Amino acid sequence: MSKVIIISRMYAGDYLKENIGHEVINLFKSDNGNNYIYVNKDGKIDSKYNNSVEAIILVKHVEKDVMEVVAKAQELEQVLYKSNKTADDIKHQIDYIEQNSITYGGVYIYLVYGNSDIEKITVTFKANKLRKVQAPVYLVQDKNKLDFYKNSVFLPQKHFSLQSLKMYYSEKELSEDYSILQSMLETEKYWESTNSTETLSLSDIDDWHQRNSFISVIRKEYDELVYSNLLSYIFEQNRLVFLEFAQEVLKINTLTRDYEIIRESENNIDIWIEDDNNVIIIENKIKSKINGEHHNIYSDKVQSQLSKYYNHAKDKCPDKNIYCYIFSPDYNSINLEKYETGKYYKTIKYSQIYNFYIKCAGSMLHTNYFSEFIDAIHLHSTKIDQSNYEIMKNRFISRIKNILEIKSLQG
Predict the structure, then answer these.
(1) DSSP per residue over 28-83, as a string?
(2) Exposed, middle or buried: residue 396 (CB in 10 Å: 0-12, 13-18, 19+)?
(3) CA-closest candidate to residue 93, choices 71, 75, 67, 112
(4) Which residues, including other chains, have CB under 8 Å from residue 241's CB and lie 6 or more apart?
(5) How does pLDDT run across 201-219, given as a tens digit for each residue?
(6) Which of helix, strand or coil describes residue 274?
(7) Which of 107, 169, 221, 368 maximizes the CB count within 10 A of its CB?
(8) Cα 292 to Cα 147, 289, 344, distances in angstroms
(9) What is the SS3 assignment for 332?
């Protein structure tokens, strides 16, 4: 029997705007300490691959032809077998869940989502081995995008589906892609050494608190303009703290308190900071990459907006020190080596900004909107973008709490 690897896309579709994604269980242990996997979209797999799925790679969409890997599930036991009758599938699901006590927070998983038939299909596999990625890893199907992502894996055969949330890579039908994925699964540097998923206990539900910022409430958590405005505001409000930030994080020791901050009106640069001796260029990137790319026929390096900004600063301020930075979330992988002026830029991760300002919080307590700034920066201070996961987790826990409260009232 030919073996197959499934790529299952998580956190996709309009359904998640108001509902709990069934795939939220993929990164939790159940109360009995086991890991179960729900394969999008409907939890079912093509029957021709029954008992032949060797691994499931959980991914998130990044852009066309690029998926970010979240975790891998291996040593699988198939739970759900697709039949011609949905009623039979549901009965088998409920029987299996009850016989194996698959609960989260003390609630059977099939009770969490609702009463429709499809919502009762909640478990596709039991995974005896599950590992999250250590740092971002990307599956790429356009060679031109490989250089943009560190830890990128190129799949030459099958193109990512725009409709289906699960894709099959068979050892027989897609042997080259299968071998590449198998090699990725075996590459230790990509994966955490142990299973870091956690069990959702009753105490987790009672004590759980989501760090939900105002930026998230207004759905601007990926808006680069908003974040650039926030950064500029904080840098302006307490100049002594920013001078410390310049010394400790940016490694600039000569900046004076008389600096000026200019937002986007200086040659469209996100943040331009200037004093008598220095110019600081900050390009702020949340999920986007470097813009304005074009190739120089005389070099293997790529010209881009980075060249434009650096050259503008050199022309305008030839006698000043020029410092160039890319501010980006820890999960946004930007390869500066491919750019013509990339050597003049340094990447500053959001975790560096967050850690510095948390340390200096005592000096910022009287600054308006400082707590909102901290919460906003915290959203992007992890190696993996967890915003959708946190939303699903919040709804998952809230729903379980609601079920337990109703049970308590019913006695």
Answers:
(1) EE-TTS-EEE--TTTS---GGGTT-EEEEEEEEEEETTEEEEEEEEEEEEE-----
(2) buried
(3) 112
(4) 357, 360, 363, 364
(5) 656 544 444 455 677 677 7
(6) strand
(7) 169
(8) 16, 10, 17
(9) coil
Give the three-class secondary structure for 228: helix
Q: How far apart are CA 220 and CA 276, in angstroms?
A: 35
Nearest to 21 by CA among 95, 122, 103: 122
Instruction: Give residues with Cβ within 8 angstroms of 162, minimum separation 6.
Output: none
What b/e sequence results for 121-147 when a residue is b if at least 16 CB atoms lie within 10 Å of its CB, and e otherwise?
Answer: bbbbbbbeebbbbeebbbbbbeeebbe
**Domain residue limits, the chain:** 4-197, 215-378
Taking a C-beta distance cutoff of 8 angstroms, is the pair 181, 140 a contact? no
Question: Who's near 154: CB < 8 A, 6+ residues apart?
Answer: 140, 141, 143, 146, 180
Q: What is the DSSP string of 308-323?
A: HHHHHHHHH-TTSEEE
The predicted structure's pLDDT at residue 15: 57
161 confidence band (pLDDT: 50, 70, 90)? confident
Instruction: Report whether 136 contacts 331 (CB < 8 A).
Output: yes
Element holding 350 (H helix, E strand): helix 350-359
Both tokens assigned to 141:
């199907």
Q: What is the pLDDT of residues 72-107, one digit of tens each?
A: 999 999 999 988 888 888 899 999 999 999 999 999
Name residue 21's amino acid. Answer: G
List the beta bridge partners of residue 37: 125
pLDDT average, residue stretch 357-382: 90
Residue 278 backbone phi and psi in degrees, to 5: -135, 150
Q: Which of the 8 DSSP states describes residue 261?
A: E
- Assessment of whether the complete model's pTM goes beyond 0.90: no
Quote the mean pLDDT of the chain.
Answer: 86
Q: What is the pLDDT of residue 323?
A: 97
What is each CA distance from 276 to 71, 155, 246, in whole angstroms? 49, 51, 15
Q: What pLDDT does 295 receive?
A: 46
Are the beta carbons of 61 and 12 closer than 8 angstroms? Answer: yes
